[in-house]
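Summary for the steering committee. One of the milestones for this cycle was to obtain a three-dimensional model of the protein with magnesium ion bound, which we needed before selecting residues for the alanine scan. The sequence and ligand used are listed below.
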Amino acid sequence: MLDCRELAIRLLKAEENHKAVSCITEKNPEFDIAMAYQVQNELVQLKKNQGHKILAYKMGITSQAKMKQMNINEPIYGYIFDYMNVPDEGELLIEDFIHPKVEAEIAFILAEDVEGPNMTMEEVLSKTEWVLPALEIIDSRYTDFVFKLPDVIADNTSAARVVFGKRRFRPNECELDEIGVTMFTNGELRADGVSAAVLGNPANSVAVLANMLSHNGKGKIAKGSIILSGGITEAIMVNKGDSVTANYDGMGSVSFQVR
Ligand code: 0L1
Ligand code: MG
């Protein structure tokens, strides 16, 4: 019988010590998605017990290509905590991570509660106060960034840091499915994409999140919540000394330095 709390403690220690661990599924092939969300719940509780607060929800594996690659038909979710927040144009210390990667996303801030099980993209848009560009830094706690789906769910979907852009927009100020993004490190183009890569429209990702939370008995996404809707670009490795900038069509840019 697997001990979800023990597994969560192991993942928390990996994060705190910046030292990768082997996948849960390696020794426990029976470890499945339902058990994985139980470990994630335990991990979230451990962080809360340490005094950390949830800052945002996050969606992961939101592109059709990535879902097909991992043989799933719905994305996964996790949580961004307050200690993960880095200001725009701020700094990351490479020592704080195992093998960090960055991906460009759109974040939503809700004007009203959003609740599944039948949430739609249109309803999300009508209940959204702001959208803004964001960079998510992911850092798998597993060796070589290699894992199966239940492993990454247990690992809070690799959440590590977030950098929100300084400018916010009303949802009707942007064509949310047509935002082109280019991401550079040290002036070199490393990744690009268009926001439709996120389930056709990042607002759809928020609707899917609400429906998944409802299905998992986690209730509504409350007014004022922030949601990271999923990667528009592929995630690229960051290294000490890197200067990372992502430019979002019509939404400005977001950047950080790695020391
Ligand atoms: O935010 C994400 O899309 C990450 C989900 C987990 C997959 C990964 O760590 O590459
Ligand atoms: Mg992400």
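Key point for the committee: Residues 4-179+195-238 form a domain with the Fumarylacetoacetate hydrolase; domain 2 fold (CATH 3.90.850.10).
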